[in-house]
Amino acid sequence: MRKRRLSLFVALLAMFAIVAAACGDDSSSSSTTTPGADASACAATPEKGDPAGKKVGLLYDVTGRGDQSFNDSAACGLDKAVKEFKLAPKEYPPSTGESDRTPRINLAAGADKNALIIGVGFLWATPL
User: Fold this and answer.
1) Alpha carbons 71 and 119: distance in angstroms, whole number
2) CA separation for the pair 20, 32 (Å, rounded)
């Protein structure tokens, strides 16, 4: 009988703790931003970068910068890396067809001599 009362007490205590946690106030949270609220921190135009820095090429997918999706996320990441690591970025806007992906990679790697080439999107997997 005593074990039964103890287990009932523990169960009630656990339920009370769960309800109290659910009804708690999260105003003490240190984060005041919502996910995606920092999107305005990314410029609509690319960063100029350091001409003497390592060259980095960003090959966009079909929609390019300004799509408010993964292309913009990649552009924002590149802009931040340019500021932090003193890079020389070069962006390659999207084209209308799939047939020019390999020549665009060759341009980024060969003529433009980028030390790093980033292809945004799964469509770059095969040509890369």
Assistant:
1) 10
2) 23
Q: What is the pLDDT along the chain (128 residues), one digit of tens a residue?
A: 677 777 777 777 777 777 777 776 666 544 444 444 444 557 667 777 777 889 999 999 888 888 888 899 999 999 999 989 989 999 998 887 777 888 999 999 998 999 999 999 888 898 88
Give the span between the Cα atoms of 53 and 87, in whole angstroms.
4
Tokens of 15: 């339920």
Whats the size of the chain, residue-wise? 128
Candidates 75, 13, 70, 18; CA nearest to 49 is 75
pTM of the model: 0.63
For residue 45, give the amino acid letter: T
Q: Classify strands 55-59 and 88-92 as parallel, antiparallel or unpaired.
A: parallel
**φ, ψ for residue 63, nearest 5 deg:** -95, -25
